[in-house]
Amino acid sequence: MSVSEVKKSAESRMNKSLESLKTNLAKIRTGRAHAGILDHVQVEYYGSPVPVGQVANVNVLDARTLNVQPYEKNMVGPIERAIRDSDLGLNPMSMGETIRVPMPPLTEERRRDLTKVVRSEGEEAKVAVRNVRRDCNDALKKLVKDKEISEDDERRTQDDVQKLTDRHVADVDKLVSQKEAEIMTV
């Protein structure tokens, strides 16, 4: 592995961490209904946990209501239970073969709780970025030990990787602050 490959690998892995953060932040609700909010809710389906989206069709009825249409009639109860037991604070209502999920308006306390969740997601993303930096530095040390690069090249590359890390951490902070502002806006 060369120095440029180490850098490319680090950058792509850090970008993946950012994309993962964006995906996770999109799941955190801001008061408006969107179908992606139930993506991480797991329901028991023949003995194994699967996402709600694989056993039901999730649609947005209006700005404050989701409609969940299970593919099998016997899945209404388990899906309703899974949504109720999730950390989203939702109270689904069974309407025969469909489930309506009203989105309650966010209270000030719930908004603060959601910002804590957003911050913890951001912290996890920062840890992932720093882990990439550590792996990259380990790879560089191995290259020096195998005498494939000089110590000066190692130091220069470590500085570049640190700048890359700093940039990605700043991006994480920016995404977190944007999401917090979005949640706290009434």
TrEMBL record:
A Pfam family the protein falls into: RRF
Keywords from the named record: Cytoplasm, Protein biosynthesis
Ribosome recycling factor domain: residues covered: 21-184
Compartments (UniProt record): Cytoplasm
Keyword Chloroplast: no
Keyword set includes Zinc: no
CDD domains per record: RRF
Role noted for this protein: Responsible for the release of ribosomes from messenger RNA at the termination of protein biosynthesis. May increase the efficiency of translation by recycling ribosomes from one round of translation to another.
Family assignment from sequence similarity: Belongs to the RRF family.
Protein name: Ribosome-recycling factor
Organism this protein belongs to: Mesopusillimonas faecipullorum
Gene: frr
